[in-house]
Amino acid sequence: MSTELAIVCLKKGQERRLNQGHLWIYSNEIDIQKTPLKAFQAGEQVVVTSSQGKALGVAYINPHSLIAARIISRKTSLVLDRSLFVHRIKIALSLRERLFNKPYYRLIFGESDLLPGLVVDRFNDVLVVQITTAGVEKQREALLEALNKVLKPSVIVLRNDVKMREMEDLELYSEVVQGSLTDLTTVEENQTLFQVDLLKGQKTGWFYDHRMNRSRVQHYAKGKRVLDLFSYVGAWGLQAATAGASEVYCVDASEQALDWLDTSAEMNNFTNITSIQANVFDALKHLREEREKFDIVIVDPPAFIKRKKDFKEGMNAYRRVNQMAMQLCSRDAILISASCSHHMPAETLLQQIQSSARHLDRFVQLLEQGHQSPDHPVHPAMPETAYIKSFMTRVLPN
User: Are residues 69 and 199 in the same domain?
Assistant: First the structure.
């Protein structure tokens, strides 16, 4: 055991989750009589022990956070430094290079890649890094050195402007720390090109998590009329156009996102894309009044349930949007309904689709069930890492 690191002792019986593979330690699981939290600095690395003194691993700690510590190694000889970053990045990279033949993917997915508090998205030779914990923030320079050693990117962008950082008492900022970004960045996914703004766009500027689900839509899209709701930059809709959709309507509240969408459509030489800036619920009502019908309707909203206490309200929003979307389905249509809310169980979303169909006297068949792309691997001991779900259904008259 390292003699350089301070010890954090757990209460009796609180090591069970860690022994099963979980990486988080909550503040109420720590024996503050033996090891007072106030004795530690945010981001400090510590050795975690059971109440009997058995070493469980090395973690970084933040006494101000509900998740007080996160395990970074089961070996007490390893600490989070440049060397460990290099090792873990190489392992993560080997998976992505096995999965994809071009360098566009999520390179690091936090706990699932044994690097809690860190997300890295790759856009060819541009990396977007998101640090959400004090432990990783304290090792920021070591992380940047490791990324340069393994990948030698021309540009590194820090998108440290997510609210999760506030729970760790960290400042919010975005910064290009290496190279320069003078224009939009190109993303290639499923034979489609997109132009995105990595500094102003949502999250890291792009969402790789539905990549496989979007590729499945392409199998149904040829010659079809498509409606892409909550489209952002048109990832679903434009990929349907690549597969030969006859018309694509994209609806989003953000004028800026639709500007990027239009730029991407032009880049792909698409002339059959209609973008609509509006609240999605208002747009659905208007399209219904206009008696529009679509062969494929895609419902991929932002997280309606961000916290457990939002569950009832969020569930009603999922039901309402799916029901309104179904009203725009042609007689033999495909409805793709997705959720990125961790607190929304997949079976509950499917129940909302079914209840919407019954309310409208329609019949649905479940064709395919989708999950997050494998560059967002799930940690089996951490259900928190599984958040994407999607259902591809066929909507028919009853």
Answer: no
Give pLDDT tens digits for 210-227: 999 999 999 999 999 999
* Rounded Cα distance, 213 and 391, in Å: 9
- The residue segments making up the domain with residue 50 are 6-73
CA distance linking residue 271 with residue 290, whole number of Å = 22
The residues annotated with a catalytic role in the active site are 340
- Cβ-Cβ contacts under 8 Å for 57 (sequence gap 6 or more): 18, 47, 48, 71, 72, 73, 74, 75, 76
CA distances from 282 to 235, 251, 252, 277 (A): 21, 10, 11, 10
Rounded Cα distance between 257 and 194, Å, is: 11
- Rounded mean pLDDT of the chain? 96
CA pair distance 333, 55, nearest whole angstrom: 57
What are the tens digits of pLDDT across the range 224-235? 999 999 999 999
Counting the structural domains of the chain, the total is: 3
d(CA 275, CA 230): 11
Is this structure's pTM higher than 0.90? yes
